[in-house]
Amino acid sequence: MQTLSKTLQNLTPGDPRAYVHTRVLSEQREITKTPRYSPSERVKFKQNSKRILADLATASGSLELADKLSRCHANLAVITCGKHIARVIPDSTCGFRLCPDCARRRAGKFMRKYVPAVLAFSVASNTQPCLLTLTQKKRSESFQSAVKSITESFKALRRSKIYKTYFKGGLFSVEFTVDTAGLYHVHIHALIFRTRQLTRDDLQNLKDRWFAITGDSHVINLKWIDPRQPGGITAGVKEVIKYAVKPADLVNFTQDHFQDFVDMKRQRMFGTFGEFQKFAQTFEPEPETLLPFTQHRVGEPCDLCGNPLFDVRVKGKDLPDFLERINATPARE
Ligand SMILES: [Zn+2]
Ligand SMILES: [Zn+2]
Predict the structure, then answer these.
(1) CA of 301, nearest ligand number
(2) pLDDT tens across 89-120, in order?
(3) Which of 27, 29, 137, 274 is deepest in the core (most CB within 10 A)?
(4) Ligand 1 mean position to 101 CA, how many Å?
(5) What stretches of the chain show up as alpha helix (H) in DSSP?
(6) Closest ligand (CA of 72)
(7) What is the pTM of this model?
């Protein structure tokens, strides 16, 4: 593999990559409906977050971590058909809990593992997957105590009669923010399996239970996922696994917060529970259910257009531009 410009210089006519040469690099733009954030903008956000994190690491004397962060996703192999991106493979990853690039990789692994399992469990147990959001008003000085308090409360809720009557098992994650006072605020996103319909009174009972446990919060949000809707389950699992830290979340971050995360080694932010936990441990997905998560290789056809995939070396810092050029490239016949 070589750099993009080298690759393009050495192309022979007929090489599928010649397409990139003429189309990707030209300045033409299509008028298309733009999503709220383009892939290019999302990469810029992530890079901004990483700059903030690397600065915090440097300032707190964690030079090794700062170095790891600056090398993480700095050099990439992009697997593309010239119009779509199949995969981005970094030369180096940092694995730091707050790194948005590493969070995304982790999320991809979780999706591959849990989307087929959630679907299979809901069929096998004849239950309906639902999304449950739980918040607590209490704010904490340390991240660890904030996470501990909400996960313990969630455990208590799962032991309650009202909960057990309607739900069995699921998976959850903890999301956090730091408020302007510098205190941690956390909530839980869970995907749980409903065994029967809740009445309005049942839902109120569930809310009352949560209030009794937390002592301060009525906030429970419960919504059904329609498994017949294409992508419904995928979107549901994604909702649970939104780990990525946005730059806005880091605005109130001090060096103390940063150190809090560096020191915290084993605090779990994600877990499975109940019958689903047992099911997921031994679940062997059918090969075809893993198709949407296939890690494509060079030479294989692109999922979206069928054209052959090839690899291009891109510097992490050039990725936003590269994505914009790809986006501006018309689809090939
Ligand atoms: Zn990283
Ligand atoms: Zn394609």
Answers:
(1) 2
(2) 999 999 888 898 998 888 888 888 899 999 99
(3) 274
(4) 5
(5) 4-9, 18-19, 39-59, 63-71, 100-124, 143-159, 161-166, 200-214, 232-240, 247-250, 255-263, 274-282, 319-328
(6) 1
(7) 0.78
